Structures are given as structure tokens and as C-alpha cells.
UniProtKB/TrEMBL annotation, chains A, B:
Example GO BP: isoleucine biosynthetic process
Domain of life, per lineage: Bacteria
Stretches that traverse the bilayer: none
Protein name as it appears in the record: Threonine/serine dehydratase
Key words, A-Z: Lyase, Pyridoxal phosphate
SUPFAM superfamilies to which the protein is assigned, alphabetical: Tryptophan synthase beta subunit-like PLP-dependent enzymes
Domain Tryptophan synthase beta chain-like PALP: 23-314
Gene3D superfamilies recorded: 3.40.50.1100
Amino acid sequence: MSSDLPLPAYADIEAAAQRIEAATIRTPLLENPRVNDRLGGRLLIKAEPLQRTGSFKFRGAYNFISQLSPDQRRAGIVAWSSGNHAQGVAEAARLLGTPATIVMPIDAPAIKVANTRASGAHVVTYDRIKDDREAIARGLAEREGRTAIPPYDHPWIIAGQGTIGPEIVDQAQSAGASLDAVIAPCSGGGLSSGIATAVKAISPGTQCFAAEPAGFDDLARSLATGTIQRNERLVGSFCDALLAPCPGNYTFALARKNLDGSLVATDDEVAGAMELAFREFKLVVEPGGAVGLACVLNGALPIQGRTVCVVCSGGNVDGEVFRAALATAARRTA
Amino acid sequence: MSSDLPLPAYADIEAAAQRIEAATIRTPLLENPRVNDRLGGRLLIKAEPLQRTGSFKFRGAYNFISQLSPDQRRAGIVAWSSGNHAQGVAEAARLLGTPATIVMPIDAPAIKVANTRASGAHVVTYDRIKDDREAIARGLAEREGRTAIPPYDHPWIIAGQGTIGPEIVDQAQSAGASLDAVIAPCSGGGLSSGIATAVKAISPGTQCFAAEPAGFDDLARSLATGTIQRNERLVGSFCDALLAPCPGNYTFALARKNLDGSLVATDDEVAGAMELAFREFKLVVEPGGAVGLACVLNGALPIQGRTVCVVCSGGNVDGEVFRAALATAARRTA
């Protein structure tokens, strides 16, 4: 179904913004003068952990399901996800009265599985290494007449996630800031390509970057080679939300057009970013949600004398993992 | 100087709101449908950890210093505080170009001392048990011609903290909620009495409560007896920000007039509230900032079938303490 649709443009993101406005939270843009002093630039944090379901994924999910026909909504939807898309889809489905089945990896964070169930979704688990989650989900969709909601490679999903772009530009303007660069975490690329598509349309002088975990830099390598590259491993990053095997067709096409590059941070740098978000912004950020911030703190994206907006994309992290990240960061600075 | 001023009224809070508007953050009112379902009521969280300096104290400090004469501002200010008032005063002084000296307990959280210094203030330490911090500060003020800024018992401070009240009522209205009750943490009572004064003026049907740590319930006992009661101990609560020895004269007079009571929670219940704020609201709340939430979760303030706004008043907590709180909460629910 998605193959017929053209690449999403800024007008699609504007339409998505109207569609989701009443159901979503206009998350705040946080700033801390002390941090700015230390960095020698202006750091703005778009706080998507405060979004409904604790991550940006609710935006795309709600934009998608609200475009289904009454018949499609009655028949239900199915999605596959390591956790945040699962929660976003489950909650959007609940609000829009659609039965949801979600295919999740057996090692997904407990908090993400519990929350998906709490929104009333039926959860089916799979093994990240042995099973093909998309095949399981598409099989279910076919057998039960459900609509499959892909996690990133669909124009409706990308347009939904892209709604963060105009919010950032508008909020930065209200704060008297002119944006030199925006950076957002990247797994399959729905968030980063959606935001870049919006930002380049409204503020063409602003650079747009994706951020990936070291060793899972499929987008960086895809942009470098001009063809879609896969990650060698499918497990093993601290950033559980950023383990998509490769960019999608839609997201890669948009990334080539609108992204200025994809930057990389290590797991330890991500833990340091989570600690900074905790200490200076009082915000809980999950590992995958902090990789953009890590790319500013490790110098991959220079901030000195500039204004940089970092999207912190989610905050669904188990207490044990969060405690370990704070402990890691404390050891590094001790 | 403060003894000449009348009790602050709603008009003073309105004036304070105008005075501080450009310098403060209108912190968001957070809500989570899943939490509401579980509680059987509507829980709104006023997220003051996202305030400048990480707590509500900036409001009162900025309202106070901005009313000083040019001569007084040049001569500088002095304040005594376990940490959040210190940071609020230091940052407000920096913004308004006033030299600041802050008297802090030697066992104040490291993060609070470091942040106070980072705002350019001179820090003088004291011993909570042996020394009289107010005497040290007032001595300094006299010797150096500085203005002393009390942590809570002054109409300008109370009016500044009270600005949270109209924000809550306005934001609740925007969210389609009619407030049955508001609860705010209480140490000396500036926050809770200020908010209650505003809320009772705008929304007389809304109940207003203070929240105190068990064993440090000086306000609850003062309200019960009709005279100011002191805490037996000055140290030993997990809630480092809530250790004032007794209500102030202004704050107690306002509390008697406008508060419907003061509720109590144990340290373990506070740790549980910090964990809920972490898990469901992605918000870092310090122990003293979470005692109002703890009073909802422990049933002291009933929420079933009602709408309750909880002020989470600050988020300045050391990583080690936060990790310990999450671990305590995990043990309790295991």
C-alpha cells in the first residue's frame, strides 16, 4: 500500500500537524544558561520524553491511524517494534478505537512491553536474531485483515514524526534563537528525515543531522556510499530503540535530499548525555533518545558560538538501566 | 524590614507574576492517561524541576531582588538556604546584576552547592546542628550593608512562589479539568501558603494542602494546635529541602487562612513517588519535591473520582541519591 504514495513534502507535515494537534503534547524546548556557558553556545533540548507514551512515536502512529477508513479501523491494525513505536501505536489505536496487535522482541525493555499492554494492545513476541518481525506482522495482517503500520518507512509515519520540525523552529523563534543546526536520533530514519524535510522547508539555512550509535551507523554509511547499507549486527548497542537494520526507501531518499549528515556517538558518550539530561535538564532520556545530545557533547556536532537544537526523542528506560547509565557517567567523570 | 509589610494578598501575587514573567519558565502541567486509569482520578503534575535553577525558588528570589532599589542592588544580597533557595537567589542576583553571598549547610547536596557557585555567588558554609544560619547571614548583612533575603517568611518571597497558583488554574482549565485539590511540598511554607492564597482567590472551591515528611510535620501540628510548633529534629529526613524548623509568621498566618490541612508521607513513600515521576512522567524530582505526590499515592489525599494537581517543586538531586531512591522503590514493589 505504501509503495504508491509519493515522498512526503512539507505540506504533508503541515497537514499531519493539524491532524494530531489535539491529541499530542507540544513538548517544551528546554534551555539551561549554565550549560550554555560551559559549551560556549546555545543548546536547546526538544523534550519528547514528555510526549504522550514517552516518545515521539505517538505522532506518526496517530497521524497514520487517523487516516484509515472506518472499515480499516474496525478490522484493526498490527505493528512491529522494539518498544516506542509499539507504545505509540497502541495508545493511538486505543484513542481512535482500533484493535491493535503488536509484535515485539522478547528482549524489549520491560517498561515498553508493560505500557503497550496497558494501552490495551495484544502483544506477540519474537527473537531479534532468529525471527523476521516484519514477516510475522505482515502474516498476521493478511490472515486477520488488519492494516500493518510500519515503524518508519511510510509517508504518513514520516510526516507525523516531522511535525516536531515546525514546533522546534517556532519555539526557537519565540526564545529569540536562530537555529544553526538540528540533530535527531536515527534508527530507521523516520524522525530525522521527517524533521529535516520540515526544517529545510521553513529554515533553509539550518543544518540538519541524524545521530546514530557507534557500530550501528547504517545511515552514515548509506549517505557516504549513496546506496542503502545494512548494520552488521542487529543486537549489542546500549541504544535499544536504534537497532533497525538499515534505512528505509522513503527515509533514505529524504535523508539524501535534506540531511547534512549522520553523526555517531559511543555507548559511554550516550550514558554521559543521559546523565547531563538528568542533572541539568531534569529530564529522563532513554539511551536511544540521548544519542543526538551525545553527538553535541562529544564534539561531532560543533556548538561553540552557535545555536543547536537537540531532539531527545524518548524516555522509556527501565530503572535499572537508568541507574547503570548514571553510574557509568559518574565513573567516567570521577 | 519585613515586619512592616502586610500579609500578601492575591493582588501581590498577580503583580509578582508580571514582574517575573519574562525571566521564568511557565512550567508544563503533565498528565498521563495510564496513571489516571490506575488511580481512578485525574492527576496533574506541575513540573517545577523544569523551572530555571531546577526549582520553584527562583520565582520568589527574582520577585524579591527586582523590588530592591538601585543602591540596595549595588550593595548586594545575602541568603541562607539548604540549596534550592540558594540557587534561585544566586541566579536571580546574577540576572539582575547584584553581588550574592549564600550561607549553606556543610551537608547540602553537592549539586546544589556547585550550581550556586556556578551562578557566581560566594558560598559560606555552616553546621546544621551547631550553627544558627540566620544569625550568620544577618550578621553578614549588617557588616556588609547587604539585604538579607529570607527563604520563606517574607511577603515578596511568598508572592513569588504563589505565582504557581494562577498558572495551575489556567493550565488546568486549558486541559478541561476542574481542580478539586492542589497539594504542594512544605518546608517553611512559602510555596504552599503562596499557592493556596492564589488558588483560594481564583477558585474558592478548590482544596489546598501542604505536604510534609513524616517526623517533620511542624505545619500539620501548628495548624492542629493553632500556634507555631517546631520540629523535634533538624536533620534526618530524606527530604533535604524540607528541614525548616517551623512555619514562619507570615506563612503560618496565610496557612491558617487558606490551607485545608497539611498531609504527611514517609521517606519510603517519597522514594516511590520519585520512581513514579521517573517512570511515568520522565521527570527528575528530588526527595523534597516529591512529597506532595507521595501524599496522593499513599492515600492521604484521596484522588478517586477527583482531579488533583500536585506541585513537584524541584529536581536538584545528586545522581547517587536518585539511584538509591529508584533502588528503594524497586525493592518495595518486588
